[in-house]
Amino acid sequence: MLEKLKKCLEAAPIVRINNYDYFVNPITDGVPRMDPIVLAETLDAIKEVGDFHCDVIVAPEAMGIPLVVPLSLELGIPYTVVRKRRYGLPGEVEITQWTGYSHKEMYINDIRSGDRVVLVDDVMSTGGTIKAVIRGLQEIGADIVDVIVVVEKGGEKAKIEKELGIHIKTLVKVKVRDGKLTILS
Length: 185
Description:
Layout: H1 3-10, E1 14-17, E2 20-23, H2 26-29, H3 36-49, E3 56-60, H4 65-75, E4 79-82, E5 93-98, E6 103-108, E7 116-124, H5 128-140, E8 143-153, H6 157-164, E9 169-177, E10 180-183
Parallel strand pairs: 3-4, 3-7, 7-8, 8-9
Antiparallel strand pairs: 1-2, 5-6, 9-10
C-alpha cells in the first residue's frame, strides 16, 4: 500500500533548518513538482481510512490545502483552511503553532460550536501544528470526528494522542537520521 508515496518519500532530499532535519517532498512541500499519480494514491488512502461523516474538512496552511481541495470536490464536503494570517472575522480563533523549526500565530475561521470536523494535514513531527489546531477546534466546541495525517515523522504520535485525548490516523511513518529518510511503516 502507498508504494508510490513511499518511493517519493525515500527520494526526498534532507535539509537542515535550525538544527532540525527537514525532508523536502511534493506531499509535504509542493517541491519538487507533484506527480498526480502519487497525489491520487495518497487521496485514495485518506478516503479509505477516514470517517468523513462531517460538516467540514479542516486543513492547516499551506500543505494541507492540496489535500483538502480534491477531497472536498470528490466528497462534496466544504473545507476551510487554518490560515497564517489574521482576518479579524467574527468568531476568529487565534492559535500558536510551535514546530521543530519555528513558531507562529495561525487563525481558525468559519468553524462553529457543534460543527463536525475532520482535520487533514500533510506531516506530523513534533505535533506543534496538530496540537494547536485541535486545541483551537476544541475551544470553539467543534466535534472532531477524525484526524488524518499523511506522514508521521518521529515517535511523538502516542504522546500527542495521550496529551490531546484524540486518536490520530497516519498513512506512512518515517524516521530521519543522519541526513537519511527511512520508511518505518
